[in-house]
């Protein structure tokens, strides 16, 4: 073999080497240039934001106020129920109220009969309620949350005592009225000196949920309950005060005797409808307004996948790796650019939805989500972040799969199918599906705790981020290992 | 940085198929090195390994004495056009060069400079999807020249081009080499490199067959062969074949003779009274030389294959 | 049998041309990488998801087993919601693959009549999906038949064992196969119109899946009802219902008709684009 030495010809020196600098900033600019110079791609971003807003407007236009009568329904107050029957006296300063529940009829395991002290009779006011339930023993409930301290079983008749000392309200119960057991204590900040205190009954609605693929119908039938109280005593009530009532709907009942309260020889019989507690079937207007992101994300997914697969398909990835052989950095730059672009589209879509759908909702007699509400703001910002996370997830799947059609199918499959399938499955199975799949990320849009909630907003978002991180790690490993 | 490509003992296999087998060669500055072999000989694989795109199973490939992936500003070390169609069709030519400049950390003025250099000019604002093959090759070459690198590598740059395009590329390669750069050009047709390359690295089935200057290769291929012009072809062939020569008809009135020197041919023909109008040393074309070499390679492989069994 | 040799002389004869086109399309479809796996996935996903659903439902959550009001045939066949992905893939790839690889030029060189090419593609896609779909549907029913009684869905509680011979169940089963075929044809039409497999898959899956998800979150019952009537998947799958038919937003066959309308529109659009555009 005659392999002559590389000749002694003078070696060429690059004229731009001195000006060239390898840096991550350059990579980011390169990927951004790639993204904006294929006209379809910026259009996809625009389409994503536009679709999101369009769906928000359509759903707002199709909405109907379910609130009966009194003005726009406050989304914050839609989330709680404050009904039942409350018979009260103003309690002057510290003091206590004692009564014996002798019977309780109808309403199921969570029918409530007992004592309550509250800031005012206004709906949604802070309260503390000590009650007997047929299925869940004696409970001290507050804050419109279900459950509460206590438990076990309570055999009727049963004694209850609620004492107020400053802002602390403590509940006691007793089987004989002599030996008291402390059930629990709550603090009611801002409790006025004269706080209404008395007896109440409440009962959850009977709800039938018909679930079918793609939809659910919730139909509720108000339940009714009845309970009898005797040995009622209120220490340090306002002298000369008489019992007043707050009935089912709309302020103090005009006709106390007819429905709510009957009194005979120191024995009170209270009848009531409706519950005091969380509304597990409330419409989440914020979430409905932000639904559009489900449609908007399709454009983002396609964009993020093609951002990668277009390079694989045409061999352009080799040019990319020739310019920057450190592949992990290329992937990072791609992910950052795709995420920021999707975030911009997401912000436009999410804020656009809330701001533009607001007037439409108001004209339909509904109270639009307010950005001043912490939960709403979280939902809106989360909705803006979803496309960014989904873009990174799609990009990582595209690197793993390398072909557009399977990558898009896989991403749409894991994001959408759990949400569709969940509506057709029995609740326990559906909850697991919405907890364990990337679709959990959409929980960030919830502002209302509903009966079918599978996972808390941040935990759900965390699940999606976890999947994204895992996919990105796999993509980074594969992109380094594989030949380009 | 020295303008060289050094390949030492490079190996690559895809599953059971050996793509590159213990390949070594060097491409030096100031030269156009032709990298030749039939389709599937392993040329593109070798080029990808030089660029650090594919991971070799053994051996090293160095650009200016360093592995490509360790270059700080790789586009200023080596410029390559592997596949002219590796451009997004919806992207303007200029934008393609622009992102590449960003990724390589190069100043943006280089984009205009290489557009000027490759004569893309008016087409630079058009989308690459509408480019003819020739324009796409120019864009690919522009991308390779972006970092003004001392080493250049082109995979089949003239494949499918019209004669005008071929002439332009040849001229460009020569001028790039004349500036002191090392230029490695692959082709599966030796004729494409005729008059374009100074040195040749010939491979077949992933193995090195020849690493030589063009002159040496032609000399070796032509050696001992004589061309006889005659109207009585049949007679001439019979006479010479009887004397032990290998005779092939190479045209309507010509035969090529191997195995006996020209003096003896003249003597034999004169003696037999066979008419001939001229006699000359045969000058082999590169194509012939190449056919001879690669033909041997196939044979060689077949023999070793049998031995292995 | 050597198709190429027999195909060449026959192509001249008008009578055999259709058979040849059909044969050519079938050869192309079955040699497409991944098509067999996709068809296996179609049957497998349908049956597996159906079995998972029927296996996870029980009567424990209901007041009484009969009060569950579960539509057991529909439950058993719910796997098509996932299985249809494979039908979409077959439909899109049958034509999309030709554009990405450039095979379309060779196809049109062999059969210049574009309508015939599209019709032949539709026929082989429909045939392949129908075969795989039938396997998946029968397997789903078999799984439901063996799993449901164990979860309290017994004949005594008003849930007779699933049988493809029972009237409404037969309609649900046959309708499900038809549903899969129509989804594949819809995908074929969209794939032909858009030419880019990635765009076509995104479009079809978005059309199928997004509307139900959006419907679920729509507050208004009127809008839910409207969307369920016109969206291809909810309307098309109305054919699976075997009880409470009066509560459906749209009748079983009418719903399948809506989907057929989508498929026909997509094929027509695809055909028009196919005929008008350069290959």
Describe the protein in words:
The complex is a heterotrimer of chains A (484), B (309) and C (279). In chain A, helix 8 crosses helix 9. With 484 residues, chain A is α+β, with helices and mostly antiparallel strands. Helices cover 37% and strands 26% of the residues of chain B. Chain B has ten helices and 13 strands. Chain C has twelve helices and no strands. With 279 residues, chain C is an all-alpha fold. Classes of the chains: A alpha+beta (484), B alpha/beta (309), C mainly alpha (279). At the A-B interface, helix 1 and helix 6 of A face strand 2, helix 2 and strand 9 of B.
Question: What structural keywords apply?
Answer:
heterotrimer, A: 484 residues, alpha+beta, Jelly Rolls, 2 domains, seven-stranded antiparallel beta sheet, 11 helices, elongated, disordered N terminus, C: 279 residues, mainly alpha, 12 helices, 0% strand
Strand content of chain A: 15-25%
Order of helices and strands of chain A: HHHEEEEEEEEEEEEEEEEEEHHHHHHHH
Give a quick account of the main beta sheet of chain B: strands, pairing sense, barrel closure. Answer: 6 strands, mixed
The overall number of domains of chain A is: 2
As an assembly, this protein is heterotrimer
Strand order of the largest sheet of chain B: 5-6-7-3-8-9
Largest sheet of chain A: 7 strands, antiparallel
Note the overall shape of chain A. elongated
The Rg value of chain B, from CA coordinates, equals 24 Å
Counted up, domains of chain B total: 2
Helix percent band of chain B = 25-40%
User: Helicity range of the residues of chain A?
Assistant: 40-55%
Silhouette of chain B: elongated
What count of helical segments of chain B does DSSP give?
10
Please give a quick description of this structure:
Chain B has 309 residues and is an alpha/beta fold. Chain B has helices at residues 43-50, 93-103, 109-117, 133-145, 163-178, 190-193, 214-222, 233-242, 262-272, 286-308, and strands spanning 5-14, 17-27, 31-36, 58-63, 78-81, 151-155, 182-187, 199-204, 207-213, 225-229, 246-251, 254-258, 278-281. The longest helix of chain B is centred in the C-terminal third of the chain and has 23 residues, at 286-308.
């Amino acid at each position: 073999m005659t392999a002559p030495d590389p000749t002694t010809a003078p070696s060429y020196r690059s004229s731009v080497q001195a000006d060239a600098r390898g840096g991550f900033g350059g990579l980011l600019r390169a990927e951004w240039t790639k993204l904006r110079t294929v006209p379809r791609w910026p259009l996809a971003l625009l389409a994503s934001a536009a679709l999101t807003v369009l769906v928000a407007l359509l759903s707002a236009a199709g909405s109907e106020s379910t609130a009966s009568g009194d003005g726009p329904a406050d989304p914050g107050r839609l989330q709680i129920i404050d009904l039942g029957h409350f018979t009260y006296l103003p309690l002057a300063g510290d003091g206590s109220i004692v009564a014996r529940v002798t019977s309780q009829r109808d309403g199921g395991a969570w029918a409530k009969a007992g004592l309550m002290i509250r800031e005012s009779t206004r709906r949604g006011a802070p309260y503390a309620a000590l009650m007997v339930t047929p299925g869940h023993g004696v409970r001290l409930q507050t804050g419109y949350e279900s459950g509460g301290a206590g438990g076990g079983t309570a055999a009727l008749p049963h004694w209850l005592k609620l004492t107020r000392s400053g802002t602390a309200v403590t509940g006691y119960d007793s089987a004989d009225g002599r030996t008291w057991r402390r059930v629990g204590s709550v603090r009611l900040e801002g409790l006025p000196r004269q706080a209404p205190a008395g007896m109440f009954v409440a009962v959850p609605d009977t709800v039938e949920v018909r679930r079918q693929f793609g939809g659910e119908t919730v139909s509720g039938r108000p339940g009714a309950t009845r309970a009898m109280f005797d040995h009622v005593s209120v220490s340090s009530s306002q002298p000369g005060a008489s019992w007043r009532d707050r009935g089912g709907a709309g302020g103090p009942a005009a006709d106390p005797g007819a429905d709510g309260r009957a009194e005979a020889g120191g024995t009170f019989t209270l009848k009531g409808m409706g519950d005091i507690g969380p509304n597990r079937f409330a419409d989440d207007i914020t979430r409905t307004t932000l639904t559009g992101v489900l449609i908007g994300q399709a454009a983002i997914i396609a964009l993020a996948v093609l951002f990668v697969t277009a390079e694989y398909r045409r061999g352009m990835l080799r040019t990319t790796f020739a310019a920057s052989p450190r592949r992990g950095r290329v992937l990072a730059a791609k992910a950052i650019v795709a995420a920021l672009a999707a975030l911009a589209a997401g912000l436009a879509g999410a804020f656009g939805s809330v701001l533009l759908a607001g007037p439409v909702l108001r004209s339909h007699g509904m109270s639009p989500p307010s950005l001043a509400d912490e939960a709403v703001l979280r939902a809106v910002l989360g909705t803006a972040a979803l496309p960014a996370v989904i873009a990174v997830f799609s990009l990582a799947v595209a690197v793993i799969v390398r072909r557009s059609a399977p990558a898009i199918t896989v991403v749409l499959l894991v994001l959408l199918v759990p949400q569709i399938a969940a509506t057709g499955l029995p609740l326990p199975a559906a909850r697991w599906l919405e907890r364990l799949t990337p679709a959990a990320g959409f929980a960030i849009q919830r502002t209302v705790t509903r009966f079918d909630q599978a996972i808390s907003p941040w935990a759900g978002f965390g699940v999606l981020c976890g999947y994204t991180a895992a996919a990105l790690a796999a993509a980074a490993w594969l992109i380094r290992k594989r030949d380009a | 940085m020295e303008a060289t490509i050094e390949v030492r003992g490079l190996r690559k296999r895809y599953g059971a198929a050996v793509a590159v087998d213990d390949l070594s060669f060097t491409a030096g500055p100031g030269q156009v090195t032709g990298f030749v072999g039939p389709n599937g000989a392993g040329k593109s694989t070798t080029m990808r390994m030089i660029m650090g795109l594919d991971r070799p199973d053994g051996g090293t490939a160095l650009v200016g004495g360093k592995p490509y992936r360790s270059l700080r500003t790789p586009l200023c070390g080596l410029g390559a056009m592997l596949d002219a169609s590796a451009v997004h069709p919806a992207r303007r030519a200029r934008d393609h060069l622009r992102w590449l400049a960003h990724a390589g950390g190069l100043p943006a003025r280089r984009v205009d400079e290489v557009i000027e250099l490759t004569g893309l000019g008016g087409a630079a604002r058009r989308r690459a999807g509408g480019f003819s093959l020739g324009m796409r090759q120019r864009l690919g070459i522009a991308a390779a020249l972006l970092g003004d690198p001392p080493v250049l590598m082109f995979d089949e740059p003239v494949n499918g081009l019209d004669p005008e395009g071929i002439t332009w590329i040849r001229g460009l390669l020569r001028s790039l080499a004349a500036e002191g750069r090392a230029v490695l050009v692959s082709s599966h047709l030796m004729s494409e490199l005729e008059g374009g390359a100074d040195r040749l690295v010939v491979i077949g089935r992933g193995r090195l067959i020849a690493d030589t200057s063009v002159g040496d290769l032609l000399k070796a291929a032509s050696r001992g062969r004589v061309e006889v012009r005659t109207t009585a072809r049949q007679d001439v062939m019979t006479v010479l074949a009887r004397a032990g020569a290998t005779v092939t008809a190479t045209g309507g009135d010509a035969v090529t003779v191997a195995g006996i020197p020209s003096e003896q041919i003249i003597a034999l023909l004169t003696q037999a009274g066979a008419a001939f109008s001229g006699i000359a040393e045969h000058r082999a074309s590169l194509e012939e030389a190449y056919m001879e070499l690669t033909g041997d390679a196939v044979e060689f492989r077949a023999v070793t294959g049998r031995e292995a069994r | 049998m050597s198709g190429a040799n027999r195909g060449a002389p026959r192509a001249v004869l008008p009578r055999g041309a259709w058979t040849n086109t059909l044969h050519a399309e079938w050869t192309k479809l079955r040699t497409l990488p991944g098509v067999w796996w996709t068809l296996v996935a179609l049957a497998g996903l349908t049956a597996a998801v159906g079995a998972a659903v029927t296996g996870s439902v029980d009567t424990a959550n209901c007041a009484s087993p009969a009060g569950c009001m579960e539509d057991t045939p529909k439950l058993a066949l719910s796997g098509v919601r996932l299985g249809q992905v494979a039908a979409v893939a077959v439909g899109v790839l049958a034509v999309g693959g030709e554009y990405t690889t450039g095979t379309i030029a060779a196809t049109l060189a062999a059969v210049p009549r574009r309508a015939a090419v599209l019709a032949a593609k539709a026929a082989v896609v429909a045939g392949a999906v129908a075969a795989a779909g039938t396997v998946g549907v029968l397997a789903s029913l078999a799984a439901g038949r063996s799993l449901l009684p164990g979860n309290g869905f017994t004949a005594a509680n008003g849930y007779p064992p699933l049988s493809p011979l029972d009237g409404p169940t037969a309609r649900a089963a046959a309708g499900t196969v038809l549903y899969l075929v129509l989804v594949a044809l819809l995908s074929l039409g969209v794939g032909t119109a858009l030419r880019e497999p990635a765009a076509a898959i995104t479009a079809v899956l978005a059309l199928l899946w997004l509307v139900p998800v959006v419907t679920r979150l729509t507050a208004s019952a009127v809008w839910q009802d409207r969307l369920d009537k016109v969206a291809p998947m909810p309307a098309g799958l109305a054919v699976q219902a075997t009880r409470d038919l009066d509560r459906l937003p749209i009748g079983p066959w009418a719903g399948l008709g809506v989907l057929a309308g989508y498929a026909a529109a997509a094929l027509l659009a695809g055909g028009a684009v196919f005929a008008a555009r350069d290959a």
